[in-house]
Specification:
8 strands, 10 helices, about 10% strand, alpha/beta
Length: about 300
């Protein structure tokens, strides 16, 4: 039913129990797509875990070893803000593999969606803010190593600044990073992205889209990436527990659709990961993420891959 693949693995769930990070949302999104007849079982693709070589394109040998052996220090676990477990390691290696697969699917089909990932606070040598491995960076480095792409762009719409993304790709002329986020929010230290759009508290749909869309349009014109990685945050939603912006569900879906249109009418493939979402009711977070996939479906119909330059 979908003209692109949705990447998902049942082990994306970090098994955190009662935690502000609703890691059960990955399963709930997959179930909602099938229940609402948006996707059929054939539309899903199951990822392999990223290889250690893939992880090491971004992360230090020391951090990779600590994750695999469970030898994080107490302060490293505190920075990570989620309990360490074997399930966590398995989930983030799978999420990185999922973003690689979503990128490969995007290059073939015009779109690819990873229901997990978007772990944009991970740095090369440590994790922060629920993020242990930077799956998007791993996928971009893998695509570049495979010579499938040269240049990539990351458009990050999570309510929190993409500090790990900015740090990893700082001064890298082959990767253009845009982060639109609430300025007065986590993280305290915000390394510079290529473009940072700092939104004031309680910014609404109009203010947010008025900042984001011109920035994306001019960046795509100037940089002309071979692949756009879209980090689709549900947490700018007005009822998010960890956010302080005032976007509506309609505004968030408009955000997704307009960014997708800007890329696809230029023939640029889009790989999407679903980032943060901490609404008081998890059903709201799930519906926002489902709407991102609906926006991709609608734009894919508008700009079929055969009409895109280079496919």
């Amino acid at each position: 039913m979908l003209p692109f693949k949705v990447v998902y693995h049942e082990k994306y769930d970090l098994n955190l129990g009662p935690h502000v990070f609703p890691s059960q949302k990955f399963r709930l999104i997959a179930e909602a797509l099938v229940a609402e007849k948006i996707a059929s079982k054939e539309d899903f693709a199951e990822p392999e875990p990223a290889s250690d070589d893939d992880i090491l394109r971004v992360h230090t040998p020391e951090w990779t070893r600590k994750l695999k052996t469970g030898t994080l220090t107490a302060s490293e676990v505190m920075l990570l803000e989620i309990p360490y477990s074997r399930e966590l390691v398995e989930a983030v290696w799978l999420a990185a593999g999922g973003s690689i697969l979503a990128a490969q699917c995007a290059l073939r089909d015009g779109f690819g969606v990873n229901l997990g990932g978007g772990f944009h606070h991970a740095y090369p040598d440590h994790g922060e803010g629920f993020c242990a491995v930077h799956d998007v960076a791993v996928a971009i480095r893998r695509m570049q190593a495979d010579k499938a792409i040269q240049k990539a762009m990351v458009v990050d719409t999570d309510v929190h600044h993409g500090n790990g993304t900015a740090a990893i790709f700082y001064n890298d002329g082959r990767v253009y990073t845009i982060s639109i986020h609430q300025e007065n929010n986590y993280p305290a230290h915000k390394p510079p992205s290529t473009v940072d759009l700092h939104m004031m508290d309680r910014a609404d749909d109009h203010e947010y889209l008025g900042a984001l869309l011109p920035a994306v349009e001019s960046a795509l014109e100037e940089f002309q990436p071979d692949l756009l990685f879209y980090v689709g945050g549900a947490d700018p939603f007005c009822e998010d527990q960890l956010g302080g912006l005032s976007l509506t569900k309609k505004g968030l879906m408009e955000r997704d659709r307009r960014v997708f249109e800007e890329a696809r009418h230029r023939g640029i493939p889009v790989a999407t990961t679903l980032a943060g979402g901490y609404a008081r009711r998890v059903v709201d977070t799930v519906s926002i993420h489902v709407n991102t996939i609906l926006a991709a479906r609608d734009v894919a119909a508008e700009f079929p891959v055969r009409a895109a330059s280079g496919g």
